[in-house]
Amino acid sequence: MSFSPGAASALDESEIPGRRAGEVTYVTVADERFFVGAVALVNSLRLTGHHERIVVLDAGLTPEQRALLAHECEIVQPPVTREGVFVVFLKTVLHLLGLRGTVVLVDSDVVVTRHLGPVVEAAQAGQIVLVADQFPERHFPEWQEILDLERPPRRDPHLGAGFIALDLDQWPDFMPRWLDLCQRVPEERADLPFDLPRDVVRANPFAFPEQDVLNAMLASEVEKDRVEVFSLDVFPGPPHNDGLRIVDRGALRVAHGEHEPFLLHYWNHPKPWLPDARAGLAMDAYVELLARLLTAADLPLRLPAADLPVWLRDDVRGRLVRRAPRRARRTIRAILRALPAPFEQRARDVGGIVAARLRLG
Question: Is 99 helix (H, G, I), strand (E, B) or coil?
């Protein structure tokens, strides 16, 4: 597998006033289809007190999208190009951008809900900071042979690749090695869709291309005590987002039991801002905060409400479309918990069929 040259060169730190090696840089990858998510991510960073540099790797934005994001971000053409499924490999090219110091790499389907100070501190102390994955047991011994790893990967809990923080000065070989290993993923993976059926995910060692490579590399070549893992309690995604309580919508604060999450991740497909998303959409806390992060007057980046699907408009109709399914689910769950066990299971079976047909999320 080879990477083709891109049009742009590395960022020049010396040409950016006030920028110093060692500062925190937030990086995301976005194309035309992920533009709305990127806008929400940037707005969430600013609302939660992150005033540092934000870099957007342009994987296919339109000129209009680039112009809007440029009000708060540095838009960079990646020095390598990938298309289709392997666009996720662009996460591995940060060392080619001239970036230094602490970097927080975050997916553009994430909203940040509190300041990431503890994460940044851990990265600056020399840790690689990652998040637990929804499939903790995922492991493939064949990673060693396919990727030509020097040692068999440990059976560590599988980690996500949607959020990574590390200090590039302390880990100068991390990104080059990740990039190198990604080039060894079999080309056949590019022939499959990004979102695979669960049985295929379980059988394919590169169902999550850059994430599987990352885990193989970590478990084979990085000491376990150099990796700091945050749990899904504080970095949740579906279905955990549905159980969250929004404490302060304006400030983006949410609660999960005794925990106050740092961010919400919507790793399901299709993404909530796409026109075809409604049928399978989880109207959860992420979607509620997403609507708050796109058009409000206090945001640095704002989108026209008319350009958004109705469920992401922050008006009466939009709130009704978002919240009615969620309230219905909660009411049904309360009723089910009150039933005797045998009747509860039967009701759940019937309810699942009805909910699917009504598209309650």
Answer: coil
Q: Count other Cβ atoms within 10 Å, centred on residue 335.
A: 12
Q: What is the pLDDT of residues 272-323, one digit of tens each?
A: 999 888 877 888 999 999 999 999 999 999 999 999 999 999 999 999 988 8
Q: Which domain holds residue 204?
A: 4-230
How many CB atoms within 10 Å of residue 194?
A: 15
> In 3D, which of 34, 36, 28, 71 has the Cα closest to residue 303?
36
* CA neighbor of 109 nearest in space, from 319, 259, 274: 274
Into how many domains does the chain fold?
2
Give yes or no for a contact between 325 and 294, defined as CB atoms under 8 angstroms apart: no
Cβ within 8 Å of residue 88, ≥6 positions away: 29, 82, 161, 209, 210, 211
Looking at the DSSP assignment, which residues form a beta bridge with residue 54? Answer: 26
Query: Rounded to two decimals, what is the model's pTM?
Result: 0.86
Residue type, 79: P
Helix (H) or strand (E) holding 144: helix 143-147
Selection from 162, 24, 163 nearest residue 103 by Cα: 24
Last residue of a domain, one of 165, 195, 230: 230
Assess if residue 270 is contained within a domain.
no
CA atoms of 263 and 254, how far apart (whole Å): 9
- Residue 264 near residue 164 (C-beta atoms within 8 A): no
Q: Pairing state of beta strands 25-30 and 4-5?
A: unpaired
Helix axes 316-337, 285-295, angle to 10 degrees: 170
Instruction: Tell me, yes or no, whether 13 and 142 share the same domain.
Output: yes
The answer to whether position 95 is within a domain reads yes
For residue 84, being part of any structural domain is answered with yes
Is there a domain that residue 284 lies in?
Answer: no
Length of the chain: 361
pLDDT single digits (tens) 193-209 = 999 999 999 999 999 99
> How far is Cα 98 from Cα 16, in angstroms, rounded to an integer?
12
Neighbour-count burial for 232-262, b at 16+ CB within 10 Å, e otherwise: bebbbbbebbbebebeeeeebbbbbeeeebb
